[in-house]
Amino acid sequence: MLKNKHLLGLEGYPREDIQTIIETAFNFREVLDRPIKKVPSLQGVTIVNLFFENSTRTKISFELAQKRLSADTVNFSASSSSLKKGESFKDTAQNIEAMKIDAVVMRHPTPGAPKHLTKFIDSVIINAGDGTHEHPTQAILDMMSLHEKFGKLKGLKVGIIGDIKHSRVALSNIYGLKIMGAKVTLCGPPNLMPKNIEELGVNYSKDVDQVIEWADALNVLRIQRERMGRGLVPSIREYRSFFGITSERLKKHMKEIVIMHPGPMNRGVEIDGEVADGDKAIILDQVLNGVASRMAILYLLCGGKKVEGE
Amino acid sequence: MSLEKITKNLMLKGGTLIDPHNEKTYNADVLIKDGKIHEIGRFEKSESCEIIDCMGKVITHGFCDLHVHFREPGREDKETLKTGSLAAMAGGFTRVCVMPNTNPPLDTPESIHFIKKKAEDAPIYIHPIGAVSKGQDGKDITEMGLMHKEGAVAFSDDGLPIQDGGIMRIALEYSKLIGVPVINHAEDECLRDGGHMHEGTVSTHLGLAGNPDLAESTMVHRDLELAKYVDARIHVPHVSSAKAVDLIRDMKKHKDDVTAEVTPHHLFFNDEDLRSYDTNLKVGPPIRTENDRIALIAALKDGTIDCIATDHAPHTIENKETTFDLATFGMIGLESCFGVVNKIMCKESEMDLIKLISLLTCSPRKIMGFEPDLFVKGTSAEITIIDTEEDWIFSKEHIKSRSINSPYIGKKMFGKVLYTISRSHIFKNIIN
After folding, report:
1. Which positions in chain B touch A134 (Cβ < 8 Å)?
2. Which CATH superfamily is domain B62-368 in?
3. Contacts of B253 (CB under 8 A, 6+ apart)
4. What is residue A80's predicted lDDT score, i.e. its pLDDT?
5. Domain check: are A206 and A271 in the same one?
6. Residues A140-199 pLDDT 10s
7. Number of domains in chain A
8. Going by C-beta distance under 8 Å and a sequence separation of 6 or more, which residues neighbour residue A30?
């Protein structure tokens, strides 16, 4: 149903397919509102969640999506695995596939790891975040949430605030939003912008107030506390002063704006608790849409496989 | 493909001789007796000779590579002097300089002696390059004088750039005692900052940590200025960026003994090729943009860069069949070299064949002080016979190295080395 066998990233992804995923996700969103939230769509399909890096919400979101679709799931995380014993990535992947599975959802700290995985296994591969490269399912759920709020993506003005250079969420959002015809402005410390980022068809502003004034929606990225005071950002208070989405700042602008955050949040750093809990924020809608989006992606990529003898 | 000891007299019949040192091209036969050039002229076939039919082929000097890693001692699972020699001959090379980043590194006269002794029976000439600093730690200089006496032809901490400018100054000044070049892998480690590929649009697309071109150029600038200041010889290895090319070109106006090399892979690939995340393309310095590639081609044409060196860097399959961040830096390059550079320089960039050959033969020999005039009666025969027009596809079968980390597998080559003659051996590059 989709042109590509895998979902490795949104760079160059077909527009119609993003459209299809979002539409399907809205259908599954209805399922999630039913008293019995389970459909048999992926009965007999086995999916492995291969997490080489810690994750809370992405992992739960995928697992829940798989359970809602009646798929069989197995979880594998690096901390509990033989990887620590020195087994190679290739061996781990091939061993898992040898147990007859249909799809792999993978989170890995290295850019390109899901693509690398395609060399060793035949199953469908879904990228659940590869280092500082892409996080396509997050971008899909972000776009779904924007679509839910605005009824369209084309022409929408989206500001992405924070550490773009180390953010897979930012890169996938940029690719996805540009494909869908939205306008994107990035904002954050200049040293946290990747080289030649403007070649991706986005603007950069160092003035967050200017971006708030311009944008229909802001996607506020988590600023890693590890980066604070280690040369990249001088201090929390300085970051907050220049780029923090505070309630005072939003009040000053007196305009309608939608606030998103991929989580987990640093309340009081990149976003104020008051903003995160306020009526402009759609952060919890994003979480719910995450399950629906992942159901749609799993269904479209792994569906159509019939159980033997059926 | 086979390596044979030459037992009979050898006659190379009907070929075109290209003598890059004397800049002459002419048709002649070559008679080799006892591994030496006996005569060049016209000869009748004789029973006592093995005849190599060279009709339509080019006979020229054996290639010389100033930059290879043969991994001995320490990583004989990747390469040895023996397997490296075969890889060299498969690529037309009869003389190589091996880098000292072995385990232990070549940082004493004894370790230089070990290589010389071990290479005595090799079918090619193997010259060790000594480490600049003890343990390649970039701090205390090695016994360069004694190492030179044992056979070290240059000094380098290749792979581990000398970060401290003061140490580099001491090394350059001290090297004047023996008059050989210091070769510094030019990368500022702080600016490199864990980068896995060239920093630019493609690294942004791929989410890979970038290594900016100025990590190279600022270091090249420092080294050139230091060499000028203390009047010592500097050789810049594997130039990868347009910025570094400009600096070398400029310094050559003031200092004529500055030399530089470029690898075939920096001439062949650009960073767009990394979109496949092919770990065989992970090299240091990184493959840069198309603009840089064009600047490197121009620099070879105008003489800013003096020679081609492969930086042949064998690694195990496990080193490369992993995720990009964990993969080691380097690719093998001896076997594919001519097919690559002939395609890029002669076919696509209109360089004369004799000029290209000089970049692989007399030019690198002069940098190291090796005899560059090889078509002289009585000279030990170092000869490469090439079909300069053959289109072929590089495959695993062409690899004689113990490692197979080549991104050229499946790529189209132009021009092929058929025979390599060196130290009374002949390598026949015919796949049956």
Report:
1. 207
2. Metal-dependent hydrolases (3.20.20.140)
3. none
4. 57
5. yes
6. 999 999 999 999 999 999 999 999 999 999 999 999 999 999 999 999 999 999 999 999
7. 2
8. none
Residue B400 in tokens: 């004689």
Q: Is residue A5 part of a domain?
A: no
For testing contact with chain A, the best of B191, B201, B204 (most A CBs within 10 A) = B204
| CATH (domain of A197) | 3.40.50.1370
B214 shares contact with chain A (CB less than 8 Å): no
A253 and A145 in a common domain: yes
Question: Residue A310: is its pLDDT beyond 70?
Answer: no
Question: Region A63-81: what's the mean pLDDT?
Answer: 88
ipTM of the complex: 0.86
Backbone angles phi, psi at B265, to 5 degrees: -70, -30
Q: What are phi and psi of A170, to 5 degrees?
A: -60, -50
Residues A145 and A260 in one domain: yes
CB < 8 Å & 24+ apart, contacts of A27-36: A27/A296, A28/A68, A28/A291, A28/A292, A28/A295, A28/A296, A28/A299, A29/A288, A29/A289, A29/A292, A31/A68, A31/A292, A31/A295, A32/A68, A32/A288, A32/A291, A32/A292
B-facing residues of A in 140-179 (CB < 8 A) are 168, 171
| Judgement on whether residues A154 and A250 belong to the same structural domain of the protein | yes
Residue A3 falls within a domain, yes or no?
no
Say if residue A142 is in the same domain as residue A236.
yes
C-alpha A237 chain-centroid distance: 28
Mean pLDDT of A294-310: 74
Give the span between the Cα atoms of B329 and A123, in whole angstroms: 30
What pLDDT does B431 receive? 62
Max CA distance (Å), chain A: 64
- Widest Cα–Cα separation across chain B: 66
pTM: 0.92
Give yes or no for a contact between B135 and B106, defined as CB atoms under 8 angstroms apart. Answer: no
Distance between first and last Cα of chain A: 21
Contact predicate A208/A257, CB 8 Å: no
Asked if A112 and B277 come within 8 Å (Cβ–Cβ), the reply is yes
Question: Into which CATH architecture does domain B2-59+377-403+410-428 fall?
Answer: Roll (2.30)
* Residue type for position B294: I
- What residue numbers bound the domain in which A47 lies? 15-135+290-302
Percent share of chain B, pLDDT over 90: 97
In terms of domains, do A113 and A198 share one?
A: no
Q: What region, left, alpha or beta, does residue B185 occupy, with left being phi > 0 and alpha being psi -120 to 50 degrees?
A: beta
